[in-house]
Design a protein that fits this description.
This protein is an alpha+beta fold and about 475 residues long. About 65% of the residues lie in helices and about 10% in strands.
Length: about 475
């Protein structure tokens, strides 16, 4: 017993040395540590409204922005789209894949254990050298072997190759999460835009019907007053042309309405025709929202999911440099085996049936004709590319926000001017109606005023749709969902 107790420490000494070396250098991680790049986008947005303007300023405040528009149907179609849109389902699947791959990469840093057992029966050839030797000693040619045990291998991450790989995969998984969020922003904004366009078309169709009725009445009146002569015929032909033009516009606007409804169904991941009953009610346009942006452009842009995804791509590329640099250094792996082996099953559990083995292996590329250097240079190039894409994405995002702010203010001003125009035309029509009622004029001035009022109302609806789209674009540019 004493001899065995003295012998084992000597045999385990290489294990102890290898494990101790691993513990000493476990904190050594080659390659550059990641530093988040800074953005210089100026101190303010040139087109930002005054600081006291109402509306959301941060991603938290822009969450669920469509609910503030006060349109239950709009809220329903957007929330359906966010729940069942095919693009979102694909992006969510990519997130699930990334998380599974990250779990696999994390497992690379842990020991791998394998258990096994075997029962073998075999016979040597009597003509083979071994068989002839066994025959001389009258030993049986047939034999049995029973074995079982546990084998453990561990690739020690002495220079951080696995850690850098895990860092890169984690950044890529985070990038996929941000891209999912960016897809949600795009789907919500696109759904809202299509909905607003649809409601505008429905309102314009109702106005077109009113305008057509007025044109048909004017045509009838002109025909009644027509007399022989070229001039009277001209007025009739002009009235007929107006009616024909308005009637021709109806199927065009009907086709646009049908297309918008189908687009909403596709965005919601629903069968075609699902939204028709929902959108058959009064075509009411939502009320647009203003927005304030009080933070500096860099802070606002950093909250956008597409910018955050681009930043995570830089982090992943930076970790890739460490993975490449780690190839310059040796890779050390440890292995161990413990088990039982016997030619007779009855003796498999005897104390003398035990076996064990252990050791360490080192692999070191000393001659590769510059391959590692090329891999490191390529990794650095990928980081430089990712950094340029990140900066371009941030600059584009800042420009989109500023453009949306400018368009929102311009469209709001245009809507106010058209409201004034519509009010003036409505007053003129009221005056014409009163004059006709007391017999001062014929019906013609009133019908002409009705036509001008319908045209003004149609222009007002288009201005409202443009203003709403500008509002939606601003929330999308701010990354709100």
């Amino acid at each position: 017993m004493g001899e065995m107790g003295m012998g084992r420490p000597a045999r385990l000494a290489p294990w102890m040395v290898a494990i101790g070396m691993g513990a000493l250098v476990a904190g050594c991680t080659v390659g550059p540590d990641y530093v988040r790049p800074t953005l210089d986008l100026g101190g303010t947005f040139p087109s930002a409204p005054p600081r006291d303007a109402s509306g959301p300023a941060t991603a938290t405040e822009t969450a669920g922005w469509w609910r503030a528009l006060g349109d239950p149907a709009l809220t329903q179609v957007i929330e359906r789209a966010l729940a069942a849109n095919a693009d979102l389902e694909a992006a969510a699947a990519r997130v699930a894949q990334s998380r599974a791959e990250l779990t696999g990469v994390k497992a690379l840093a842990l020991p791998i254990g394998q258990a096994g057992a075997a029962a073998l029966h075999g016979s040597d050839s009597a003509r083979s050298p071994e068989g002839q030797l066994l025959s001389q000693f009258r030993a049986p040619l047939e034999s049995d072997l029973y074995a079982g045990g546990l084998a453990v291998t561990w690739e020690t991450d002495l220079f951080g190759k696995i850690r850098r790989g895990r860092e890169a995969r984690a950044a890529q998984a985070q990038m996929d999460v941000h891209e999912l969020q960016a897809t949600r922003v795009a789907v919500a904004a696109q759904t809202a835009r299509v909905y607003v366009i649809l409601r505008g078309l429905q309102q314009r169709r109702a106005i077109l019907r009113r305008r057509l009725v007025a044109a048909e009445r004017a045509l009838t009146l002109t025909q009644r007053r027509a007399v022989e002569g070229e001039g009277a015929g001209l007025y009739v032909r002009q009235a007929e042309a107006q009616v024909a033009s308005l009637r021709a516009a109806l199927p065009v606007i009907d086709a646009a309405i049908a297309q918008s409804i189908d687009s909403l169904d596709v965005l919601q991941g629903q069968p075609l025709g699902t939204s028709r009953s929902l959108l058959s009610g009064p075509p009411i346009l939502p009320v647009g929202l203003a927005a304030r942006v009080v933070d500096a452009p860099a802070a606002v842009v950093a909250r956008r999911p597409d910018v955050a995804a681009a930043e995570r791509a830089v982090a992943a590329a930076n970790a890739g440099i460490g993975v490449a640099v780690a190839e310059y250094y040796p890779q050390v792996s440890l292995a161990g085996l413990a088990g039982l082996s016997s030619t007779q099953s009855a003796h498999l559990l005897d104390s003398n049936a035990g076996l064990w083995a252990g050791g360490a292996a080192v692999q070191w590329r000393l001659l590769d004709w510059g391959r590692i250097g090329a891999d490191v240079a390529a990794a650095k190039g990928r980081k430089a590319e990712a950094l340029a894409v990140y900066r371009r994405t941030a600059e584009t995002a800042a420009a989109e926000i500023d453009v949306a702010l400018a368009q929102l203010q311009a469209s709001a001003e245009r809507s106010r001017r058209i409201d004034d125009l519509t009010l003036s035309v409505a007053r003129a029509r009221a005056i014409a109606d009163r004059a006709h009622a007391v017999g001062e004029t014929t019906l013609a001035p009133g019908l002409e005023a009705e036509d001008r009022l319908c045209a003004a109302e149609d222009e007002r609806v288009q201005a409202q749709v443009t203003a709403l789209q500008a509002s939606i674009d601003l929330y999308r540019a701010l990354g709100g969902v």
